């Protein structure tokens, strides 16, 4: 399945009555439902940065922030606590669940390590795995970073040569538009001929 993107569009503002006139509703808490009345609330939401949330809050101008809805849902009923709900539709197509891989080959890495910035996120996405491959040498450790923060809590040890190895659970996984992805060889022993580091990313379409 795939998630569709909502909010942060030219028509995505919340208004409220004020002294007989309409004004923007800043700081309004918005919940989303599958029906105009009653129904079931959609709570499986992601912010534009990929953080799980059950509701969103409008900004100081009353704009609905960018969010991604539940898998396969292209329209939802928005409830700001008033007497009725408003129908909102997703913008464009769904963010794909297909995994895209970014990476780099580091030839003859120095013993004390080296790092390279390799990519800038064009929009919100999520890192799902960090993998490494060592050619020659006797050992190496690697990691990857998003805006300088390690994606693996513990450096991945490439203890077995000529074998793809993957890291433990990824931390700092959500990436927002403009975030920087880098790879790092933290150490290399026995003069490896090359080390390859790959990062799996979901949500690039």
Strand order, sheet with most strands:
7-6-9-1-12
- Write down the overall mean pLDDT: 90
- How large is the share of residues in beta strands? over 45%
Task: Kindly state the number of beta strands.
Answer: 22
Rg calculated over all Cα atoms: 22 Å
What proportion of the residues is helical, as a percent range? Answer: under 10%
Order of helices and strands: EEEEEEEEEEEEEEEEEEEEEE
Report the structural category: mainly beta
Using the alpha-carbon principal axes, give the shape.
elongated
Number of helices: 0
Biggest β-sheet strands, sense, barrel: 5 strands, antiparallel
Q: What oligomeric assembly is this protein in?
A: single chain
Euclidean distance between termini CA atoms: 12 Å
Low-confidence stretches: none
Which descriptors would you attach to this protein?
22 strands, 205 residues, mainly beta, five-stranded antiparallel β-sheet, elongated
Protein model, in words:
This protein is mainly beta. The chain is 0% helix and 52% strand. The chain has no helices and 22 strands. The strands form 5 sheets. Strands 7-6-9-1-12 form a 5-stranded antiparallel β-sheet, with no helix packed on it. Strands 4, 5, 8, 10 and 11 form a 5-stranded antiparallel β-sheet that branches. Strands 13, 15, 19, 20 and 22 form a 5-stranded antiparallel β-sheet that branches. A hairpin with a 2-residue loop joins strand 16 (139-146) and strand 17 (149-150). It starts with a strand and ends with a strand. The model has no long low-confidence stretch (mean pLDDT 90).
What is the strand and helix layout of this fold?
Elements (H helix, E strand, L loop, with lengths): L2 E4 L8 E4 L2 E4 L4 E5 L7 E2 L2 E3 L4 E2 L2 E2 L9 E5 L3 E5 L6 E4 L1 E5 L3 E9 L6 E7 L4 E11 L3 E8 L2 E2 L5 E2 L7 E2 L7 E2 L4 E10 L4 E9 L3
Antiparallel strand pairs: 1-9, 1-12, 2-3, 4-5, 4-8, 4-10, 6-7, 6-9, 10-11, 13-22, 14-21, 15-19, 15-20, 15-22, 16-17, 16-18, 16-21
């Amino acid at each position: 399945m795939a998630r569709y993107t909502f909010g942060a569009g030219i028509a995505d503002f919340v208004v409220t009555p004020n002294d007989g006139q309409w004004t923007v509703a800043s700081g309004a808490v918005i919940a989303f439902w599958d029906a105009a009345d009653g129904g079931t609330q959609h709570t499986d939401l992601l912010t534009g940065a990929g953080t799980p949330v059950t509701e969103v809050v409008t900004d100081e101008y009353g704009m609905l922030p960018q969010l991604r809805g539940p898998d396969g849902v292209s329209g939802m009923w928005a409830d700001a606590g008033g007497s009725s709900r408003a129908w909102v539709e997703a913008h464009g197509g769904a963010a794909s669940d297909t995994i895209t891989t970014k990476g780099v080959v580091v030839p003859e890495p120095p013993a004390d390590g080296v790092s390279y910035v390799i990519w800038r996120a064009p929009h919100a996405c999520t890192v799902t795995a960090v993998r490494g491959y060592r050619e020659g040498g006797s050992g190496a450790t690697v990691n990857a970073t998003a805006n300088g923060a390690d994606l693996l809590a513990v450096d991945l040890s490439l203890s077995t040569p000529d074998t793809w190895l993957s890291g433990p659970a990824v931390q700092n996984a959500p990436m927002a538009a403009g975030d920087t992805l880098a790879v790092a060889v933290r150490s290399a022993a026995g003069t490896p001929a090359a080390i390859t580091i790959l990062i799996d990313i979901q949500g690039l379409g």
